[in-house]
Write the C-alpha cells for this entry.
Amino acid sequence: MKKTAQIFAGIRTPFYYYDMEILENTARQVKELAEKYRIDVHYATKANEDARIVSLLSEVGFGVDCVSGDEVKLALGCGVPVSKIMFAGVGKSDEEIFEAGIAGIGAINVESVQELYIVNAIAAKYGFVANVCVRVNPNIDAHTFRYVTSGLNTNKFGVSESEFPELVEMLAQCNNVKFRGLHFHIASQIKDIAKVTKTLCGVANRAVEWFAGHGFETEIINLGGGLGVNYENPYGDTFPDFEGWFKAIDENIVRKPGMTIHVEPGRALVAQCGDLITKVLFVKETEVKSFVVVDAGMNNLVRPAFYGAFHLIENLSAEERPSLPSNRVYDVVGPVCESSDTFGKGRQLPLTVRGDLMVVHSAGAYGQAMSMRYTLRPIAQVVYSDRINEAEKETPIL
Ligand code: LLP
C-alpha cells in the first residue's frame, strides 16, 4: 500500500509500519528461489521478533535461527516445527541449553569445545540426546561494517580450524549429543555476496572433508545470513539479491548425498517491509543548522546512533502540499538527551513544519527488535498494513 500522510493521519506516533504485502511477496519469491536452488531457509528471528512476521515466514515453510531461549520459545509459540529451530550464540545458559535440548530442536549450534562438553553433560543428566551443529569460525573478512563482522578469528564466534582436533576428540566422548553438521555466519549487510560466498563455500567444503576424515559426516551445512539490502533506494530496490546468493552457493558448495544446505537471512527478509513513522515536534533554526526534531528517538531505532547507519528519510506530509518552497537541509533528530540521537545529518528535505509525518525507511530489520526504554521513553506501537484500522489513535491536546 502506498504510504501517505493521509492514511496515517490520527495514528499515535511513533509507530512501526509493516507492509505485509511486501513481506509476503519477498517471502514467496525467496521460497521459489530456495526450491530452485535446493536451499533450506531459516529466518534469523533477531532481525524482527514480531509474532505475525515469524508466523508468516514459518507458514511459507521457513525454519528459524534463534539466539536466545526466549527466541526459541517465541518460535515454538508461532508454530515453527521443533525440528526447524536452530539455536546459535556464544553464551547460552544451562537453562537455555536444557530447554532447547529437551524440546528436541533441530540443532544447538555449539560455539566452543567447552560448550559441547556442557551440552553433553546436561543431556546426560536429564536423559536426552541433543542435536548439535558445530559453529566454525572461518576467518573470512566480508568487508562490511566492523560491528557486524563475525567471521574473523579475532571475533568471539565459533571454533577455529586449529581447535578441530580437540573438538572431534570431545565429540567422540559425548554419548548424549548427535553431531548433525557445521554452521558458519560471517557478517551482516554484505554487499558483494557472491564473492564472499565463494570463499565461504571453499572453507566449508574443506571443513566437511576434514570432519568426514575424522568420522563425522555432515548432514547440515548452514552458511548463515548476511545478505545486504539497499538502504539508499528502498522503493526502487525492494527485493535483495537472493538469486545471486543462492546461485553462488549452488555453484560452489560440494553437495554430498543426504546433505542439506541451510541459510539464515534476517535483514534481507524483513528490512524493506518496515518503516518507522514519526511526527515532527519542532523545527529548530539555529545560526549554523536547521534541526527537525521528531517524536521517535534512538530508543526506537538505534541503528543510526549505534552504527552510523544510513536510513532514507522522507517527509510524507510535504508531498501533499507541493506548492510550498522546496529543498532545505536539515539534521533529523530525536528527543533523547544524547547527540547521537540523530536519524540523519544534512538531509535534503522539502520545507518541513511542525506536525509533518516523516518516514524512516528500511527499518523492518533490527529496528523494533533493538528498541529500548532509555529515559523511559515508550516502545513504538506496531501497525500492520492490512490492519491499519486497529492502530491506536493519538489523543490531541492542542
Ligand atoms: N545468523 C547468525 C548466527 C547471526 O548472528 C546473524 C546476525 C544472522 C544469521 C542474520 O544476519 P542478517 O541476514 O540479518 O545479516 N544489528 C545489526 C546486525 C547484527 C547481525 C547479527 N547477527 C544491524 O542493525 O545492522
Summary: The mean pLDDT is 95. Residues 193-213 form the longest helix (21 residues). The chain has two domains: 38-265, 272-390.
